[in-house]
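Q: Joint fold for the lines below.
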Amino acid sequence: MSAERLSTGGSAIDRARPLSFSFDGRKVDAFAGDTIAAALLANDVAIVGRSFKYHRPRGVWGSGVEEPNALVDIAGRGPNTRATTEAARQGLVAVSVNASPDAARDRSAFLDRFARFIPAAFYYKTFMWPDWHRFEPRIRAMAGLGKVDPTWTAPEAADQINHHCDVLVVGAGPAGLAAARLAAHEGKSVLLVDEQMVPGGSLRHRDGEIDGKSTAQWITESLSAVTGAGQLFLPATTAFGIYDHNLVALNQRHQDGRPDTLWRVRPRRIILATGALERPLPFADNDLPGIMAADAALVYLRCYAVRVGRRIVIATNNDSAYEVAEALIEAGAAVTLIDMRQDGLPSAPKGVTVLRGRMIASAQGKSSVESVTLDDGTRLTVDSVLVSGGWTPTLHLFCQARSKLAWSEKRAAFLPGDPVEGIAVAGAANGAVSLSEVFTDAVRATQSPSPAPASTGREASGGVVPAWPIAGAKGRIWIDYQSDVTAKDVELAARENFVSVEHLKRYTTLGMATDQGKTSNLLGLALLAGISGRSIAETGTTTYRPPFTPVPLTSFAGPRSGELMAPVRRLPLENTHRAQGAVFQEYGGWLRPAFYGGTDAEAAIQDEARRARQSAALFDGSTLGKIEVIGPQAAAFVDFIYYNTMSTLKPGRCRYGFMLSENGVVFDDGILVRLDEHRFIVSCSTSHVGAVHVRLEEWRQDRFGRDAVYIHNATSEMATLTVSGPASKQLLATLDLGLSLADADLPHMAIGEGRFAGDLLRVARVSFTGDRSYELSIRADRAEILWRSLQEAGKAFDAVTLGLEALMILRAEKGYIVISKDTDGTTMPQDLGVDGPRTKRQTDYVGRRSLFTEVAQAPNRLQLVGLAVPDGEPPLAPGAHGILQDGLKLRSQGFVTSSYLSPVLGRPIALALIERGAARHGETIDMQHLGQKRHATITAPCVFDPSGARFNA
Amino acid sequence: MQIFTCPFCGPRDESEFHFGGEAGNTRPDGAGVPAERWAQYLYMRANPKGATREVWVHLTCGEFFVMERDSVGHKVAASQALGGAEKSE
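A: Joint structure:
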């Protein structure tokens, strides 16, 4: 190659702002406005990377997102960034992919000499014995592209934006700009996006005149017409996916180091003005550095003032390369144009030699192309080869919207087939070639009555002739540069009967990797069509899936990482608990105090549990569900929802009950409070509040009706502070709560209303500890005063503040269950010893019929029991299995669900679900955990104060 | 992401909704329901390809409703409140 920067010209660069960056450790001079690829070419860097499998030297191919070769790893930006779309920035550090020590001197280049022995699927066929995984790490280390930096962390969360508009125009080339301008003029809300950093598309480097103006003038004018109407243009933004109901996802890149922004756009109408991509030509060694797309060479010349060579051969099968030839001659290069076509050729540009009816058979060169041999044997010395194998409309988004393509023999391309509702394709993406065609098409796509802009440019006289690879051709004809797939690999796949394009893709990796075959797919499937004797239309394309270009995972994650991945719910009194030395843990989605003070967790928990039984304990139970059920049919409603009959509950009283699923499994347990005739409070488990609420709503709406019952989830409105223990009544008596605490007025399982510091206070005598307990509920924002008053009053009684861990011990001593800890997805109420409603209730309730199935009445069901261990032994492991010798095999007969050391009993206690457990109290069974065997004796679940005397002590 | 129409709130993103089951799965009441009928109610689903009638819940307003949609093309035909009183596009 002998590429160089010309002293004048370059519409995209600002020569007043020079900068430099590093590529493979080498300093590269550039100007503001350069892409990395443009700057590398300006510095005559021929080899920009090494190929995936064979470590072949590769150079810049294109000028946009289609780029298969020029991938670089950029520190802080990520692997496999396309050098053709990334802006050159001062101080940027770029490293070539799959090369060591660098692209120019790659150590693994020798692999290419063995290429004939390692065709497609070689690894899978060869390394089958003894085990592929033995070879995999080394093979993977030798192949591949960029490297992920595992130490990298996102400096900040990516923004995600939801956006609605009338019209989304994808692509700000001639068609897109014209469409956006028209839509904006008609008062529609418009979002115009382009993946390039500047608008204009092909107008930036192709000749033309629009409405009597230059292309540059028309771009500026059109863009101001769009933005001047208050509409939005996003440069450097790729529409990478169309999803259900025409949701379009955009990835917006920023030049200031911010993470990319994800846009979710809901347009009423989508106009895809996504242009077309130039295809390579098939000839031997067509992947040598210095061989590039003809259109890209024109981009580098006109936008970046980079002339890619001095002695240039241009090979083409269509008219678009003629303008390239003309421009390069004017820029001082010697140009030979090789046209496959015999007839209908445009007139040859002045100074250009045109060889008609010829094509390149092979290219030669070591580190870059040095000569080409034509099909008639002529050899031409060159330093650069530009090819144009025709144009492939960019229809990825259109296909993602589940539409089909239609093959056009005339255009030698797939064009939009069946239309998709709400989506229009315009311009080159729709097969338009000349500017006037493009504009007519854009106006049609907007459904506007306005006339198209008058224009000249790109008139195509000669059409296009097929330039597909042919089976059995000599040499290595590269189909997919990025995945290192040659025509011979495609032939091999066809020979082994992988004749579906989807199989071809997976067998050879054709069309895989980061470019997803943007330049290669059509050549591959045309070759397969030829080999298998089918037409290209019959052969079809592989499925198009998002994303169109790689999207950083940070864009998809947005702010939802770290603490925000699954945010915990927090107590109103969290800061107060922290000041008291609470150590917090997450329980059922809530952050709650596990225990207070001390570094020795076990000692602190034991101490709290012991002292709670002695005098008084304070506990924050604010997370308990408080769902109000109100209305004329409230009583009938709770009867249906609960397993237990609830309508017989008297106002002012509380009852413990189960809610079942329709399959009879215990879904939740808790206290139901009846405030008055038509008003209940469902106090459900902390972790189940949301699910219980939805369940209540479902049955209310489906079975009872909107006017019969009303449901209100008041869980977060009220804080609940619990005072428990033998001294709890005396402790409360020191405070002015505005209600009588006499047991006659407020007996166990009753609720009373009082006032504290002017606020409504509900006092419920329900107990989860087994001791006399009072649950005080008050509006959440006033809970702190109550908590401080309780703490103050507690000093005289040596009251202890309980964390959740100590509470777990107290409830286990009483045999009280925690749903989905002491129960599982098979546990029915009779397994928990609550069989009354099942056998006695006459009215229907949720889950009832399931309690009478064969399985529900099986004799060997797992039932809740307590387990005692021999004196002096430590607690059983939660999850330890009760085991049984069954013939020659051991089998499980249940498992430990909760296990603690009880300070008040001075021994370990456990709850378990054991087969037929209720009838086996006193029996000693074998336990096993992680291979260790122990014994345990089955007891009743409740091992402390079984008579319940302490409720009133 | 699809757009569903809540009969009460209008068109919203699918992330605001939860699937509630196939519509028309009537609950047989009573302890004497035959086991086959009860199993049908609990477990058997038609899972049609094409036009479906489904119960969905709009989580942000809490209302359950019936939605008619196509399980292949994902086109939403109509939504109606339980009981069929209100109808919307």
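Q: Anything notable?
A: The first strand of chain A starts at residue 4 and ends at 5. The domain at 160-277+393-456 of chain A is CATH 3.50.50.60 (FAD/NAD(P)-binding domain).
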